[in-house]
Design brief:
This protein is α+β, with helices and mostly antiparallel strands. The chain has helices at residues 9-18, 21-27, 42-57, 62-65, 68-91, 232-252, 256-262, 392-395, 405-420, and strands at residues 100-101, 116-122, 129-134, 140-146, 159-161, 172-178, 188-191, 198-204, 215-220, 270-272, 282-290, 295-302, 309-315, 330-332, 343-349, 358-360, 366-374, 383-388. It has three domains: 3-28 and 37-90, no CATH class; 94-229, Jelly Rolls; 256-420, Jelly Rolls. It is 26% helix and 24% strand.
C-alpha cells in the first residue's frame, strides 16, 4: 500500500513538486522534467524551498555540514519553518481572526520554551477587536502586539496580562482593542499600535497537571461577521510572501549555537539580550554545553526571593528545543526544588545520574542550556561545574533529592500525560 494514500493531497503535491526524488521512490520511475507552474508565485516558492536546506547548512562549520545526521535535522528544521509559516499563509486573516498555533514541540523554531503554549492571531491595522474568554489559572497568560520589522514600535511590544482584566462571576473577561478608546466606553480596553499586524499569545504553565488554560475568542467588531471568497490577488500576495517568511525563520537562529561557541561560552553562561519579541519582565541567560557521554554539568545558582516564573531548558546544535514531551529535558519551579542550603542545583548529562533535578541531553552531545527568570527580584547567573556522571552525587550536598530508574520512568510518563492534555492545537 502506498504511503501517499495517507497524505493530505496538498502536502503530497508540495512534496512531489519540491523534492522530485520522492516521486521516483514511490513509483520506480524518474519523473519527466516539470514545466514552470501556471500558478503565479508557485514556481518562485518551490525554487526558494529547493535551495533552503543548503543555505541553512552554509551557515554552519564544515564538520556539521558534512554530518549526515545534521543534514537531516536541517531538513527537519526547514520543514518546521515551512509548516509554521504556511499555517499563517492559509489561516491568518485580520478580518476573520483566530488564534492559530505558532511554535512548540512540533513547530520547533525560534527555540520555544517547554512550559509555554504559543499562539498568534492576525489583525488588520485600523481594525477594532474584541477578545473574550475565561481567565484560567496558568502561571502567566500574556498577549503581545507584534509590529513588523522596520515599522515604528517594532523593537518594543505592548503586553497585556490577562490576569489584570476584570472578570464576571463565571471567570469570564471581555476586552476591547482599538487605536482609540470609544467615547463613553467603560469596559476593559487595550490600545492598539496602528502598525501592529499580529497578536501573540503566551500561556506559561509551571504545574502542567493542575493549572487551567485560559480560553480566548477574538472577533473584529467594526465590520459585519462573514468571510467572502478571498480574491486571487490576496492569495497570490500571501503565496509570494511565503518564501521570505520561511527564509527568515529558518535562517535566523540556525547558527546561534555556533556563534555562542565562537564567543567562548562553552560550559559557562552569559546574559542573552533578546533583540525583540521577549516576554515583558523576562531575563534570559544561556551557554553552550559540550559533554562526553560520561560527563555531567552541575548548574548552581541562588533562587530569587520573589519570582513569578523560572525555567531551564536545552536545545540541540541548530537551536531546536530538545523534545521535552518525551524526555526529562526541561525544569521549572514546580519541578525542581532548591537543596537544603537554599541553592538550586540542576544536573545536565546524557546518562541519568539519579538526582531529581536532571536535564537529559537526549542524544545531543552539544547544544545550549538556556534559563529564564521572569518577574524576579534578582537575576543570578549560575555557575557551572563539570564532573564525571559517576561523581555527581559526591559533588552535591548530602540529602539531595534522588530518584530510582523506576521512579524516573513514572515521572516521565506523568509529565508526558500532563503536557499532552494541554491544548496545543
Amino acid at each position: 500500500m502506498s504511503i501517499r494514500r495517507f497524505w493530505p493531497l496538498g502536502l503530497a503535491t508540495l512534496a512531489l513538486a519540491a523534492f522530485p526524488f520522492a516521486a521516483k521512490a514511490a513509483d520506480g520511475a524518474a519523473p519527466a522534467a516539470a514545466a514552470p507552474s501556471s500558478v503565479p508565485g508557485w514556481q518562485e516558492f518551490v525554487d526558494s524551498l529547493r535551495t533552503l536546506p543548503d543555505r541553512m547548512l552554509a551557515k554552519l562549520p564544515e564538520p556539521m555540514r558534512q554530518d549526515p545526521q545534521v543534514r537531516q535535522e536541517i531538513a527537519r528544521l526547514a520543514l518546521e519553518s515551512l509548516a509554521s509559516q504556511a499555517l499563517g499563509a492559509v489561516g491568518a486573516d485580520g478580518d476573520a481572526p483566530q488564534f492559530l498555533p505558532s511554535i512548540g514541540q512540533v513547530l520547533n523554531i525560534g527555540q520555544p520554551n517547554a512550559d509555554t503554549i504559543y499562539r498568534s492571531a492576525a489583525i488588520t491595522p485600523g481594525g477594532t477587536y474584541r477578545i473574550t474568554g475565561k481567565q484560567g489559572t496558568v502561571n502567566l497568560a500574556v498577549l503581545a502586539q507584534v509590529v513588523p520589522q522596520g515599522e515604528a514600535g517594532a523593537g518594543s511590544r505592548a503586553h497585556l496580562d490577562l490576569s489584570e482584566l476584570k472578570t464576571d462571576a463565571n471567570d469570564r473577561f471581555d476586552v476591547l482593542l482599538s487605536a482609540e478608546r470609544p467615547q463613553d466606553y467603560t469596559g476593559d480596553w487595550w490600545q492598539l499600535n496602528p502598525a501592529a499586524r499580529t497578536l501573540m499569545l503566551r500561556l506559561v504553565s509551571s504545574d502542567w497537571d493542575k493549572e487551567v488554560e485560559p480560553t480566548l475568542s477574538i472577533e473584529r467588531v467594526d465590520r459585519p461577521i462573514g468571510r467572502p471568497r478571498v480574491p486571487a490577488a490576496v492569495l497570490e500576495r500571501r503565496l509570494r510572501a511565503l518564501p521570505q517568511q520561511v527564509d527568515y525563520i529558518a535562517l535566523m537562529f540556525v547558527d546561534h549555537v555556533e556563534q555562542l561557541r565562537r564567543e567562548g561560552f562553552v560550559n559557562r553562561f552569559k546574559v542573552f539580550d533578546v533583540p525583540f519579541g521577549a516576554l515583558a519582565g523576562q531575563f534570559y541567560y544561556e551557554g553552550v554545553y559540550d559533554l562526553a557521554d560520561d560527563e555531567a554539568l552541575i548548574v548552581e545558582s541562588p533562587v530569587p526571593a520573589k519570582c513569578d516564573y523560572r525555567s531551564l531548558i536545552l536545545t540541540n546544535e541548530i537551536y531546536e528545543t530538545t523534545d521535552w514531551v518525551n524526555n526529562h529535558s526541561s525544569l521549572n519551579a514546580a519541578q525542581s526544588a532548591p537543596d537544603s542550603d537554599g541553592k538550586l542545583r540542576i544536573v545536565v548529562s546524557a546518562r541519568d545520574p539519579g538526582v531529581r533535578n536532571w536535564l537529559d541531553t537526549a542524544g545531543y552531545a552539544k547544544g545550549i542550556i538556556q534559563g529564564r527568570w521572569t518577574g524576579c527580584d534578582s537575576q543570578p547567573i549560575p555557575t557551572v561545574q563539570k564532573v564525571k556522571v559517576q561523581d555527581v552525587l559526591k559533588a552535591l550536598p548530602k540529602g539531595v533529592a534522588t530518584v530510582t530508574p523506576e521512579e524516573r520512568q513514572q515521572i516521565l510518563r506523568e509529565r508526558r500525560r500532563a503536557l499532552l492534555e494541554r491544548s496545543y492545537w
